[in-house]
Amino acid sequence: MAGMLAAWKVYEAIGISLESGQTSLYLFVKWTILDFVLLYLGWCVRIPKLRISTAMLYGLALACVFLNLNLFLLSSSVLVLALKPVGLGVASSCLRSVKSVPLVGPWIVGDSELLIDTFQLDDEHILGRHTIHILPHSLAHMNPAGKALCIDTSAVAKRAWYARFVPGSSHGHHQDRQLTIPMVINGTRPASITYAHTSFETGERQLRSVKNVKALRMETVAPYPALGNNWVLATYYLPISEEGAYEIHSVRDSRGLEFRTMAGAQATVVVGCPTAHLSWRQQGSEGDSTFAVSSGGHASICQRVSSSALGDDGAAVRLIDVVVEGYAPMDVSVVRLVNGHREAIELDGIATDEARNTGDGEWARFQRRQVTYTLSDAVLQAGEYVYRLESVRDAANHTVALSDVPGSAIMARMVVHARPRVAWASGLGMSSSPLWLSDDRQRASHHALGLQLTGQAPWTVDYTIDTGAEVLRESRTFSESKGAALDARVAGVYSLVGVRDNHCTGSGLPTDLNSVTVERAVRPMANISSTPIMARECGGEIGAHISLELTGRPPFAVHYRERNLLRHSSSRATVRVVRTHQHRHVLAVTPAVAGTYELEFFRVDDDNFPSGQPMAEVVRQVVHAQPSATIDAMRVPPMICRGEAVKVPVHLSGEAPWKLMYAVVQGGHRTVHNATEIQDERHSVDVGPLNEPGEHSVDLLRVTDARGCARELAGASAAIRVRASGPHAAFRCDTDGVRLREGEGGAHIPVALSSAEFPVELTYRRIGDDKAFRATILRASSPMSMPAHGAGQYVLVSARDTCEGTVDVVPCAVHVEPRPRVWFATKNLLNKGNGHWHLPSTCEGSTSAESMGLSLGLSGAGPWRIEYFVDYWADSNQKGNAAAVPDRSTLRSAVVLDPAVLPIDESRAPGRYRYRLSTISDERYTRPHPVSDSSALLAVEHTVTHSPVAVLRAYSKDGKPLAVGNAGTGFFNRRSRSQSVTHCLAPGQQAPTSDESAAWARARDHLPEFRIEFSGAHPPFDAWVEVIPASGKPEVVEVLAIPESSHSVALPDHIASRIGRYHLRLLRTRDALGCENRYTDTASDLVGGGIDIEYIEAPTVRPASSSPASLPSRSVCIGDILAFDLRGLGPWTIDYEYNGARRSTTATKRLFRRIADVPGNFSLTRVCHRAATNDCCSEFDDDLKYAVHDIPRVRVGRGVDVHQDILEGDLVHIPLYLTGQPPFTFTWQRRALSSDASGAAKSKILESHTVKDLDAYEYTITTSSEGTFEVTFIQDHHCQYPKA
User: Fold this and answer.
1) Cβ partners under 8 Å of residue 988, min gap 6
2) What distance, in Å, lies between the first and last C-alpha atoms of the chain?
3) In angstroms, rounded to a whole number, what is the distance separating the alpha carbons of residues 494 and 941?
4) Would you say the pTM of this structure is higher than 0.70?
5) How would you classify the pairing of strands 369-377 and 341-350?
6) pLDDT < 50: residue spans in the chain
7) 1111 φ, ψ to 5°?
């Protein structure tokens, strides 16, 4: 679907682009909407492979708007200028392909404007070019690049023994490895090659010949067939098998002619290819006993560290040799991989002293030599070391990638084992606190000292134990590092000395971190002593200070039993625990109850012995308790009412009976009271009644016990707040009171409260009713209200929370609102019996006061919402009385204010209407209720009569209706729904300029007839018709007393048959009842229908001045565009003939064009009007007849590109063949040879010649020059190529 839409858009874009400067708002709007719909559908369906995000959707929409704007609204935008040639080219190619289909192709394509604008002549009018190349003399050159070569001596040793004597005899894979020297031959094929070889070792020069040259490998660079099959530019490859210097001695062809050689050419040097390999130094470890080489060639060594304990100094170790062989000096690239980390090592300028001495001879410096270089490594990092030779390069810049050489001698692998290490686990060596050995069941009798081991199992750990009396040295072996620990059962200092693993020897921790102290714990003990505590106020002991002297490791816990022997001699003692972190602790024992107390200390605990150690210490102390009194504040009420008393609970301690002194404080006044002979520990003090509002406090001052011991009390008090009054309540009603809707309950009376403590209980009643109602306000809210129990006046009776309050006696009234009412209040209604009231009848479309609306009467609280029914009876309904069923009944609603007018039916269709009120609601009664007032007017009827309707129509003289078109399109056309009639007046049919009646009669015989036709209503009719010319003053034609429904309209004679444009329209019509119908909207001045009349003359044609069709000779060439100017009113139907084929086409533009695409004859025969109600044409005989001539042609040779190689001095004949009508004029050129292999780039023009007035059909160019010969212009008697 998207593809079809895209093709459609391209078609319309190309169509509008053919009309230069044309735009289309309609196409822009249409394609923008279609693109938006397509993008929205693609976004909604959410295809997985074509999912469009919201941001992408907006971007594509903007892109579509931009593209459509350029295609359809902007005629000269950058996008249109860039895409128009491409689009026209693609479309024209498609049309030409369709047109080439036999029989149906020309019929489908027709005379497309696209083929005219994109027509191009084919490029076969000038065919062929001739290129001449002059060849040089034969030449032989060895190794033209001048590169030094190297030979792999190992590969040569594996070749067959006879290969060095028979060139090209290598077989198998050795043939690919055999070294060859390239030799360029430019000329005839060689028959024999002789070359010289000089040895590097002896300096001897030898001549060697290649007898079988055909056996050599050859690559042809460029053949020269024009000079024979033996002339080539080729490269021959000379095989060699030993080192030395090579140079050409002589080259001869089959005729014995010797080739030229390059003067001053250097000899080609062939040296042995460099090689290198790695070798472990068996003595290279320099005494390191850990270095070893396995049978597989891999080495291993222990990691070296800078530690005097191990005897290492951190110096590098010479372990491996790099052996290099070749033409010195040489460079070697070595890669060292340490645990995967790559490091490149470049060894530059490796050579021996012998190689640096070049005085032995000219060629001795190229001899092959062997050099050894030793690599050193510090091996300070543990892991895998890999040495690999990457490449080797000799002095002649021969680089050999050793990674491609088979064998393992280029890589060496060594494993560096890490030194093992041992350390205390969990930071034991860093802690200054010792580990304790204890005999308690909750503590350990030994410790596992954890170890951290690194290295390879098994490990042997050496350690010492310093017990103070002696130092023990021990060792232990572990097979795995997990769970490795030393078992410490002996007290002392444990120190790590060293460690060994499977490969190497390591060391322990530093001296300050490698020791752990283990000590034996002693049992805890407690020494106890006591001192009595004497009372300050009165004599006697009130307790004791018990001193605890503790030995052991804190924290300590001392357990004892406390027992009062005076009161609880036979009961269970109270067990208490004293916990402390100090070695000396003082415990104060002051019981609140008097008696003889026994404290039995039976156990002491410390950190090493949590299970405790038994002890038996007893302390006895006689205690005389002091009197005391406190107030139970939780039981004292925080607030009381004015005039109330309160009881304050007091708890006493000591020996009964007690005396209590207390004070009551209010404001600045203080009253002291005494209570005596109090026997019970729990006593209540009576305070009040309190009549002063505000804050009061009760303070306990002194207590005295039975021994006469008095004690001053501090901080024993209670606060009491006394309220000044209770709550106050009052109604908060408006002046109108509370309004209640009829039939509904649930009204609430608003109330206001002040000085209240919630909840508050209210009592109220209705005046005239003795029944009281109660309501409880639970919390403060806005607003607060009480339920109303029906209509009437309500008054408050009382209000109370914790205290009695006061009320406002102002009453609040509750009213019931009446329901809203509605009725018709329109005046001048007519009573036609049966209780039906009617508005006066009106004509259709009338705007009188009676037809505008119905007045309403309203009561209630506006605005009001009204629902009403509109019943309609059409004139066709035979039961046009009140009992008949209406054709249509519609329920409508309206919101109105007082005064209100109910609108009547907006359509005002003829018929009888009845308006019935249904429901009403207002601001108080929001739910609609039916209108049912028998005393009010609730229904009104209204009758609308038809207005006369007429239309203008056009007929031919034989009474047939004329085909008309719609002329009311366009946004700015002031005529609405008008019809158009176009009539062609042939020469002699126009109205005469004089008043000759016979001439007028002849003219009227050809004119159409216009009639006015009425439908329905009541005759006779009157009509007013306006005639508006395109230029001039409008005229109104009155047609009165028309008895029938159809009547002819006679136009004024002076405009009946003049060429031009007119418009006929109906202004108004009227029937016998006086109802009028106006066809012009005075508000917008729009014309309601009508007929556009246009009288046109017969069309004519003449050749366009800028077209070859205007030439007097009437001769044109293929590719010329024949253009003609069309006169008259379009569209036109044009008949023409091309090579005997008659064709007809329709033109909508005033410029008619056709392309001359084949030779022959073209003639335009007739042009006609087709848009008129009648056809009229203009015919042409031989005035527009043209001869179409073919374009001349020329062929260079056979019409193809020819490349010819010649020797210096040879002549070449280039024939030219011409086609057309003599005499001919043409231009040929010679261009320099192009360096571009494709020939696309034009080279420099060396010479150019023009041959004029040639009557022959052949021409020959004779030359011995080098270059490309081609024809650029040709002209015959009629035409030329290329066109000017």
Assistant:
1) none
2) 46
3) 124
4) no
5) unpaired
6) 161-162, 164-176, 284-285, 307-311, 880, 965-976, 999, 1082-1087
7) -70, 140
